[in-house]
Amino acid sequence: MKWIPAASLVVLTLPALAAPPSSVVGAPGKPAQDTCTECHKALDDPRLQGPANLAADDIHHRQGVTCAGCHGGDPTAEDPEQAMDPKKGFVGKIPAQRIPEVCGSCHSDAAFMLRYAPNIPTDQLAQYRTSKHGLALAKGDTRVATCASCHEAHGVLPASDARSPVYPTRIVETCERCHGDKALMANYGLSGQEVAEYKESVHYQALTVKNDLSAPTCNDCHGSHGATPPGVSSVSNVCGNCHLTQREAFDLSPHRDAFAIMEQPACEACHGNHKVLPPQDSWIGVGEGQVCGSCHSAGDKGAEVASALFGALDGTVKRLEAARQRVEQLEARGMLMDDAAVQLEEAHQALVLARSEVHTANRQRVEAQTSQAQQALAKAEGLAKAAEDELRFRHNGLKVSLVVILVAVVALALKIREIESRAQ
User: Fold this and answer.
1) What is the pTM of this model?
2) With CB atoms 3.0 to 4.6 Å apart as the test, which of 46, 172, 342, 346 could cross-link to 376 if both were Cys?
3) Is residue 273 part of a domain?
């Protein structure tokens, strides 16, 4: 079989957007005849052999799509000149500007996709065209991401496959290929530190340490195909997808309208965007490093509310920790403290709700929850005291018993000695 060198291949303009004909697409699991992979596997050049070796795992190949589905040509021809005949629509390396349309020729065809993957949305191309990547590509910027940048060109795996570059635990590294390149990002007014900052976040820790696949990654906040930075007015909507309770609480606060007037993003103003750290009660206040001090200063009404909120939370936390240690010590000494543990959990849950109510910036709502926590802690402390009294009673009883036993032993010894003396 004669081979045409890659250098002699001519890249042509692709045909109009249309799903590939049935001659280059077989049935799922039953690919149409494909001489492309057979020939490329026999080549010595790894650059040309590689795509064919990846075909076995490629989701398109497994669904019956041949190489000609993207590159055109005749996959049934044994002669490479016929197989790669430009007259038959063959295209070698697909230009970056055309990649979205090539992928969209199938993925935007609802009838076609229904045959192979009915659950996959068919609006990815439309979304991509509205994204930062798509808009830049339309202006001729070929440095931006296209479908192949994230999904790869060959050996494409389903997003549910842990080996896929768009699997939740791998998508961060996929985005980092470009967004971690400071020189490249400088062209778009970005620092190139965004991914590095995200890797310090509580979200990344949940994803990688706790293996929580529901933890947000880049595409959860920015979108996948329609990737774009959330605007000031939409940040809370993005965060609210997961943190619904906090978002509803924030909407009840005076901050909602104030932030809108100042054109400040709601959640991001206090929590940041990429480097989102676990929230701490110590953030509440106007001192150095406390987030409320970004807008408020000592002596104003906001500072007074912040001080009250911190005081309610801090007092409850300290009492909860003291009560928990007390109960744990009693358990270690053999006392059954199940009822006290229930009260501690109730106090903890009330504290969680109180922290959520902080977003309302409403002192009464926060103190209503900390009050419930304090009531539960009072019950736990009462149970702990009862257990301590019982333990003390047992210890005192044991001491009395030991004294009685000791007296009995001494008396018995004396009696035995008396009997022995008489016997002599």
Assistant:
1) 0.81
2) 346
3) no
